[in-house]
From TrEMBL:
InterPro entries tied to this protein: Frigida
The keyword Acyltransferase belongs to this UniProt entry's keyword annotation: no
Classification of source organism: Eukaryota, Viridiplantae, Streptophyta, Embryophyta, Tracheophyta
Protein name: FRIGIDA-like protein
Basic and acidic residues bias locations: 152-163
């Protein structure tokens, strides 16, 4: 600012300098011996021009300085705002973490109170006279108090199996450390898999070494691998692998219900070494997996990541290599929690980029919401891009020469894509940003066209020839039929009436929620039907949830 002030002072003094120069010039002219060619007027105009040029340049510099100061102030304000947003997000994360901690403490306290209640309900003390007597007040606190060492009593039959009500066979199998029998029992009762899944963590308490039991159950994960003639993997193998994943998840559930000391007794260093050996054996086999073929539903990649998370050995493997496996399991419902357990939250922006570039925007949207990255990856833009690519992929190259079969496939794929987008919008509550009414109208239109084509096809099918009433079968062969007659003998009128619908096909409007089971809210809980658990197909169908088991 001092330099600017001095420059301004010098510029203002220009006029006085010009006046002094004029006086000197006049004095010089009065003493000249010869006539000067230059006139004072010309000199004065020259110096005034220089003065104006300097002033104009000075004002330009002042304006640039003010603009720079304004930009600096805006940048500082934006930086302060971003810092405040970061602090707010950190605080929100801390609040969520505190809530989870409080919930865990409450669950532990509830469990302790429950065990205290069980111990307080023991039969009254029997006296030497054979009569019932209540314990003294001095003994009551000792009976009702459970120390940390007494938590080992959870191994007793009264406490450890409290959560196993429907399938006590699970307890027997875990006690006997029978991993093969456990696999067979789960496979035989796959229709009730949801109930079994809830009871397995309690049944594992009966095992002498729950971690070793789960590791033994993984032995045939690759050993029994085989393929059918069409190149697809055997359904029994897929079911076995899903069972392996479920057992590891149930062990993780058991570990979360224990305190740190008890969990370290279950997952010992020896157990970790055994798990690491299995992981090292599985790792090379993952190199043959293809991102496009897995479609985000790879059991092999899921089992590998779950093994690292359950037994706490993720630190022994490279994070970059682990993050490259995440797109192969992006459709699994456990993906978000699994990535957090493995410490891959910071790698998720790169994972989402891979999903977007591979045309799997729906998975990208789900993960963006799960890791609060919706500002970096706009859900609406991703969904619109998915629909655009889906329409481009299903559009026939020559619309005029499209066969009915191809057109039906095109309509079916577009219908599936629309239902998937509608489901995702409703699941993440994006209706204000992306209205679903136009999409639902298009769904109704495609469904109506599909039903109309089906009705026309059914009506055009020839009616089958009915057998004779006497049950003998076809009549004698007729050879002297005139050329103008039909081959089949004439039947009585209305004997084969044309198939007619009793009522017209009704297509409710979008507001009637024409297909609630397809575009309703998603759930991430395991379906009771074991068919969803052992199925091996994958496609973006609206009848499935956003994540598979």
């Amino acid at each position: 600012m001092d330099n600017t002030h001095s420059v301004a002072t010098l510029i203002d003094s220009t006029t006085s300098k010009i006046q002094q120069l004029q006086k000197a010039f006049a004095e010089l002219e009065s003493h000249r011996a010869v006539t000067l060619n230059l006139k004072w007027k010309e000199l004065e105009e020259h110096f005034h021009g220089l003065e104006k040029s300097l002033k104009r340049r000075f004002h330009e510099l002042e304006d640039q300085e003010k603009e720079f100061e304004n930009r600096t102030i805006k940048a500082r304000d934006l930086l302060v705002k971003k810092e405040a947003d970061i602090v707010a997000k950190e605080q929100a994360s801390l609040d969520k973490l505190q809530e989870k901690r409080d919930a865990a403490v409450f669950a532990i306290a509830s469990a302790r109170d429950k065990h205290r209640k069980v111990s307080s309900d023991d039969p009254a003390v029997v006296t030497t006279e054979g009569q019932n007597a209540q314990p003294s007040t001095e003994e009551t606190p000792q009976e009702n108090t459970i120390s940390d060492g007494d938590l080992e009593e959870m191994k007793s039959p009264e406490n450890e199996h409290e959560g196993v009500k429907s399938y006590p066979q699970l307890v027997t199998l875990c006690k006997e450390m029978d991993s093969e029998g456990l696999h067979k029992f789960i496979s035989d009762n796959r229709k009730n898999l949801a109930a079994i899944r809830e009871e397995i963590p309690f049944a594992l308490r009966a095992a002498i070494n729950p971690a070793s039991l789960v590791l033994e159950s993984l032995e045939d994960f690759y050993r029994a691998e085989s393929t059918n003639t069409d190149g697809k993997k055997d359904s029994n193998l897929l079911g076995l692998r899903r069972t392996c994943i479920m057992l590891m998840e149930c062990l993780s559930t058991l570990l979360t219900s224990l305190d740190l000391a008890s969990a370290s007794e279950v997952i010992t260093e020896e157990v970790k070494e055994q798990a690491k050996e299995i992981a090292e054996e599985w790792k090379p086999k993952l190199d043959a997996l293809d991102l496009d073929d897995s479609n985000g539903n790879s059991l092999e990649a899921h089992a590998f990541l779950q093994l690292l998370a359950t037994f706490g050995i993720a630190s022994d493997f490279d994070e970059e290599e682990l993050s490259r496996l995440v797109p192969m399991v992006s459709r699994r419902r456990q993906t978000a929690d699994l990535c957090r357990s493995l410490g891959l939250s910071e790698k998720m922006p790169g994972v989402i980029e891979v999903l977007v570039n591979s045309g799997r925007q729906i998975d990208a949207v789900n993960l963006a919401f799960a890791f609060e990255l919706t500002q970096q990856f706009s859900p609406v833009a991703l969904l619109k891009s998915y629909l655009k690519e889906a329409r481009k992929a299903v559009s026939p190259s020559k619309p005029g020469n499209t066969s009915p079969t191809v057109q039906n496939e095109v309509n079916e794929r577009e219908l599936t894509a629309l239902k998937t987008v509608v489901k995702c919008i409703e699941e993440h509550k994006l209706e204000e940003q992306y209205p679903v009414d136009p999409l639902q109208k298009k769904v109704v239109q495609l469904e109506k066209a599909k039903a109309d084509k089906k009705r026309v096809t059914e009506a055009a099918k020839p009616q089958p020839k009915r057998p004779r009433a006497n049950g003998v079968g076809a009549g004698p062969r007729v050879t002297n039929i005139p050329a103008e007659k039909t081959f089949y003998p004439r039947v009585a009128e209305n004997r084969y009436p044309q198939y007619m619908y009793e009522r017209p096909y009704v297509y409710p409007g979008p507001n009637d929620n024409h297909c609630p089971s397809l575009i309703g809210s998603a759930t991430y809980s395991l379906s009771p039907a074991h068919g969803n658990y052992f199925a091996n197909g994958y496609q973006y169908q609206a009848v499935q949830t956003a994540y598979l088991h």
